[in-house]
Design the sequence.
C-alpha cells in the first residue's frame, strides 16, 4: 500500500454526490431541529435590544420547515422546540410550548384543507400564523407584568410579513443541505 | 408538489397508530404548555432554575455573539465617521474648548463637595462594583425586556443588585444562575425606579414602556414643571438603586410627566458593572432608633 496515496485520501474532503453516495440519516433528521433551535438562540443574542426589534425567528423557521416538508417534523415538535425557546425568549414559560404546538396543528389542518397551494398562499398563511402568535405573546407577557400596547409590536409584525420569504428560502437551502449525498455506500 | 390523494398511512397498523399517537401527543403538548403558562402566571419565578441552566449552557455562544456585536459597532462607527469628518472635527474642537472651561468649574465643585462632606462627616457611599460583565443576550423578540449578563451567583451576584454602564442605570438583577444572571432592564413595563430631576431634586418615578423609552411620573401632581432636555438621576429612595446614577433625559412632555429616552442604551453598552444593592443610611439610623425605642 502506498502511504502517500493513503495520506491523500485521508486529507482530501469527502466526495459529495455520485452514484454510490446517500444522504446521511443523522444530518437529514437533525438539520430541521438544530436550525430551529439555533434560530431561537440567535433571536436573543444578535442584538441587545431596548425594545422588541427582532421577529420570532425560531417560530418562523418552524413554520417554514413544516410548510416545505409537511410531516418531516412530528405534530408534537412544538413541545420540545417551544420549551427550548421559552428558556431564552423572556416570555412566561409555556407560552411558546402552547403557541408552537397550536401552530403546527393549524398548519396540518391548512395542509388538509388547501392541498394545492402557491407561493403567495404559503407566504400569507405563514406570516398570518406568526403574527397571530406575536399578538398572543404580547397578551401572555402583559399577564405577567406591565401593560404594553399593541403598537409596541407593530415593527415586529411588519418584519414578519417582509422577512417570512427570506426565512423560507433559508429553510429551503438547509433542506438541500440536509439531503447532500455524503455517505459512501461502497462499491 | 402534488399532495398525496389521501392522508391514510396505508394498511400498516403500526404506521396508523404512530400517526394517531403523533396527533394525540401534539394536542397534549399544547395542553401541557397551557398548564405551564398558568403556573408561570401564578408565580413568574417558578421556572427560573430551568432558565438558569439554559442560559448557563448558552453563555459561550452569547459571548461569541457579543464579541461579534462589538466588532460590528466598531466597523460601522468607523465607516460612519469618515462621511462627515471635517464637520465633526470643527464641532469637536468647539466642544473641547467648552469642556475645558467646564472641567475647571467641575474641579472646583468637587473640591467644595469634598470639603462639605468632610464637614458633615459623610463618607463616600460609592463602593466598588461587585463585578463587571458582558451583556450576552436580551429578549429581543418578546415585549418583556430582560438581558442576560455573563456573571452569576459564583461571582457573588445576588438578586436585586443594580446594574449600570458607563452612561447610567441599565437595570437590576432579577434571577441568578451559577455563571449568568437575568437582568430586568429599566425599559421593561414592570420596572419602576425612584428618581429626581438632576437640577432641583424634583422627585418622581421612571417606568418602562417596553418600546425602548421610559415614562417619567412626578410625585407632586398639578402644574407639570418639566421641560424637554431635563436630566434625571436615581434618588436612592427606598433603597436598591444608589442615589445619583444618571438614568434618562425628558423628550416629550405629557400631562403628568414626560416620555424620556434612556441614557444607557443597552445596545451600545458592551460592558456593565454590577453594584451592591443600596441600603439607605437614614433608614438604618431610623431602624436603630426604633429598636432602641422598642427596648425601652
Sequence:
Amino acid at each position: 500500500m502506498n502511504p502517500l496515496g493513503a495520506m491523500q485520501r485521508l486529507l482530501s474532503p469527502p466526495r459529495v454526490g455520485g452514484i454510490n453516495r446517500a444522504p446521511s440519516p443523522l444530518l437529514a433528521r437533525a438539520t430541521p431541529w438544530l436550525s430551529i433551535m439555533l434560530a431561537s438562540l440567535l433571536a436573543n443574542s444578535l442584538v441587545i435590544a431596548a425594545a422588541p426589534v427582532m421577529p420570532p425567528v425560531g417560530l418562523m423557521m418552524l413554520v417554514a420547515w413544516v410548510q416545505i416538508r409537511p410531516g418531516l417534523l412530528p405534530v408534537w415538535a412544538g413541545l420540545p422546540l417551544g420549551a427550548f425557546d421559552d428558556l431564552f425568549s423572556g416570555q412566561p414559560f409555556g407560552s411558546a410550548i402552547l403557541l408552537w404546538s397550536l401552530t403546527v396543528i393549524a398548519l396540518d389542518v391548512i395542509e388538509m384543507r388547501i392541498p394545492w397551494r402557491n407561493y403567495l398562499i404559503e407566504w400569507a398563511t405563514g406570516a398570518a400564523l406568526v403574527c397571530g402568535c406575536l399578538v398572543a405573546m404580547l397578551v401572555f407577557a402583559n399577564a405577567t407584568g406591565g401593560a404594553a400596547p399593541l403598537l409596541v409590536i407593530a415593527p415586529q409584525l411588519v418584519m414578519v410579513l417582509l422577512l417570512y420569504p427570506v426565512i423560507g428560502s433559508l429553510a429551503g437551502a438547509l433542506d438541500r443541505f440536509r439531503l447532500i449525498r455524503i455517505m459512501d455506500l461502497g462499491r | 408538489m402534488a399532495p398525496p390523494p389521501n392522508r391514510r398511512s396505508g394498511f400498516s397498523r403500526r404506521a396508523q397508530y404512530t400517526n394517531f399517537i403523533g396527533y394525540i401527543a401534539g394536542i397534549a403538548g399544547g395542553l401541557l404548555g397551557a398548564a405551564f403558562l398558568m403556573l408561570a402566571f401564578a408565580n413568574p419565578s417558578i421556572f427560573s432554575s430551568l432558565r438558569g441552566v439554559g442560559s448557563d449552557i448558552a453563555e459561550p455562544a452569547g459571548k461569541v455573539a457579543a464579541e461579534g456585536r462589538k466588532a460590528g459597532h466598531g466597523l460601522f462607527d468607523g465607516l460612519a465617521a469618515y462621511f462627515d469628518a471635517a464637520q465633526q472635527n470643527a464641532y469637536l474642537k468647539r466642544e473641547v474648548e467648552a469642556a475645558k472651561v467646564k472641567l475647571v468649574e467641575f474641579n472646583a465643585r468637587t473640591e467644595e463637595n469634598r470639603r462639605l462632606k468632610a464637614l458633615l462627616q459623610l463618607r463616600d457611599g460609592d463602593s466598588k462594583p461587585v463585578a463587571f460583565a458582558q451583556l450576552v443576550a436580551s429578549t429581543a423578540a418578546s415585549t418583556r425586556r430582560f438581558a442576560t449578563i455573563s456573571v452569576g451567583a459564583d461571582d457573588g451576584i445576588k438578586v436585586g443588585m443594580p446594574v449600570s454602564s458607563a452612561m447610567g442605570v441599565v437595570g437590576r438583577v432579577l434571577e441568578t444562575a451559577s455563571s449568568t444572571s437575568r437582568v430586568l432592564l429599566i425599559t421593561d413595563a414592570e420596572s419602576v425606579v425612584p428618581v429626581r430631576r438632576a437640577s432641583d431634586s424634583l422627585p418622581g418615578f421612571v417606568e418602562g414602556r417596553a418600546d425602548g423609552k421610559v415614562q417619567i411620573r412626578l410625585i407632586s401632581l398639578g402644574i407639570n414643571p418639566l421641560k424637554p432636555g431635563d436630566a434625571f438621576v436615581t434618588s436612592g429612595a427606598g433603597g436598591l438603586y444608589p442615589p445619583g446614577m444618571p438614568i434618562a433625559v425628558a423628550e416629550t412632555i405629557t400631562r403628568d410627566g414626560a416620555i424620556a429616552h434612556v441614557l444607557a442604551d443597552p445596545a451600545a453598552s458592551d460592558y456593565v458593572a454590577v453594584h451592591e444593592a443600596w441600603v439607605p443610611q437614614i433608614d438604618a439610623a431610623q431602624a436603630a432608633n426604633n429598636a432602641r425605642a422598642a427596648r425601652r
In short: The mean pLDDT of chain B is 84. The radius of gyration of chain B is 26 Å.
